[in-house]
Amino acid sequence: MAINAQQIKELREQTQAGFADCKNALEEAGGDIKKATEILRKKGFEKAAKKSDRETGQGLVESYVHQTGKVGVLVSLLCETDFVARTDEFKTLAHEIAMQVAAMNPKTIDDLLKQEYIRDGSKTIDDLIKETIAKLGENIKLSDFKRSEI
To answer: Residue 129 pLDDT > 90, yes or no?
Structure first.
């Protein structure tokens, strides 16, 4: 089956994956965008697994205070380089994790990683981190979080 530019564009908008990766996934999936999305997700997880032993010496601390002002969260998220720590994708990930902690009140990092993501119940927080690892090409680790509530 011939893959057209519109299909590739649609898949890229959904996944933020590269052009060649989208084209290859669509060819492998026979043009089915849903199957191609799953193929890209699986390949992203494989890429993330290969990077899991890399040193994470950079990162950022993200804060989030819920609009009521009664719940606040600090999240320490680590990556390999300060360049990646300054990207919008990394900052967004840190913010999303902080919001997750505020909303779901996990007790440990392991509990947090296993939780369903509040914006998309088909993913866990661990899945969200692995997707970002695949996009950015660096290992990312959740170092710590603190939640305070009045």
So the answer is: yes
